[in-house]
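Hypothesis: this fold can be encoded by more than one sequence.
Test: take the structure tokens below, design a sequence, compare later.
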């Protein structure tokens, strides 16, 4: 009798153990399948299953290892520096609007989109003759040391800037508050002058200036697109309407762009509801998205002229394009 009970107990226990292992194995398989499917469907992780990715990664790693061990300047060829150099080159060569930012540089970029940054208080434009100073902000460090509109920047910290993109020149001039930057300037008289300029916190409005003349023509110069741009433009328009504005000249010259959301907010001020502002299409037509005017505020009706030049780019081009339809 005891033997029969023992046999039955073993059978029950064996059945329970087998069921446990079935559930465990099934769970592991389901989780593995979920992870594999998720990885293969995600474009950013799909490369992990491609031989080309690993071949390129090994090629880069071998090159970095050789440069780090053989280059004459061991400080310059540190792994961190080499990695940052490679990332800057990789992203920067995609197009002129793509850049790689280190955390500190990204902080500077984020502040710039809010029109708050540490710099010397100038606006610049790249033309055939070089990097031209187009505006010197009142009471800023640049004005205090005597920089003037029309002067050219030749060097920043001893490095010629003739072959640099505008963003690179701007980023090299900006920096940490209470430090200084040395800039070689070609003055209006043709003299080359080396000036050390302190960096200070710069806060400026997106709306550089606005006014209404005696004929009821308003003029508004918009410098950038930040989080506050839509609000600032609405406030300026309201004030100009109170001053008798009948028509408006929207000046986007030398406006290098900024936030897409801010550009949409500005376009909505002038466009009727549901009118297309901009559409975005990803690779192979995926992630298509349209942005239409959706303002719940009053759309003012008056004649509008938009002015652009070669310095008009990015978000300001979107606004100019949407208003010209």
């Amino acid at each position: 009798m005891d033997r029969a009970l023992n046999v039955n107990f073993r059978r029950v226990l064996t059945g329970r153990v087998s069921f446990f292992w079935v559930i465990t194995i099934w769970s592991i398989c389901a989780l593995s399948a979920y992870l594999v499917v998720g990885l293969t469907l995600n474009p950013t992780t799909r490369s992990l299953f491609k031989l080309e990715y690993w071949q390129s990664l090994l090629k880069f790693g071998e090159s970095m290892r050789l440069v780090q061990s053989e280059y004459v300047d061991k400080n310059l060829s540190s792994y961190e520096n080499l990695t940052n150099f490679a990332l800057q080159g990789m992203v920067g060569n995609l197009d002129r609007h793509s850049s790689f930012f280190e955390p500190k540089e990204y902080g500077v970029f984020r502040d710039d989109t809010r029109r708050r940054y540490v710099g010397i208080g100038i606006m610049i434009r790249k033309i055939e003759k070089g990097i031209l100073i187009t505006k010197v902000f009142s009471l800023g460090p640049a004005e205090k040391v005597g920089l003037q509109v029309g002067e050219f920047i030749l060097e920043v910290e001893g490095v010629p800037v003739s072959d640099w993109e505008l963003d690179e020149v701007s980023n090299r001039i900006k920096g940490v508050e209470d430090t200084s930057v040395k800039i070689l300037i070609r003055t209006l008289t043709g003299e080359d002058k080396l000036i050390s300029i302190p960096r200070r916190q710069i806060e400026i409005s997106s709306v550089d200036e606005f006014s209404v003349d005696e004929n009821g023509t308003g003029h508004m110069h918009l410098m950038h697109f930040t989080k506050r741009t839509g609000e600032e433009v609405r406030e300026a328009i309201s004030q100009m309407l109170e001053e008798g504005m009948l028509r408006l000249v929207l000046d986007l010259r030398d406006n290098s762009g900024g936030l897409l959301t801010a550009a949409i907010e500005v376009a909505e001020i002038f466009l009727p509801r549901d009118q297309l502002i901009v559409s975005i299409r990803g690779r192979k037509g995926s992630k298509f998205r349209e942005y239409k005017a959706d303002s719940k505020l009053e759309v003012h009706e008056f004649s509008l002229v938009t002015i652009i030049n070669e310095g008009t780019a990015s978000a300001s081009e979107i606004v100019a394009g949407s208003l010209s339809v």
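The mean pLDDT is 84. The two ends are 95 Å apart (CA to CA).
Hypothesis status: open.
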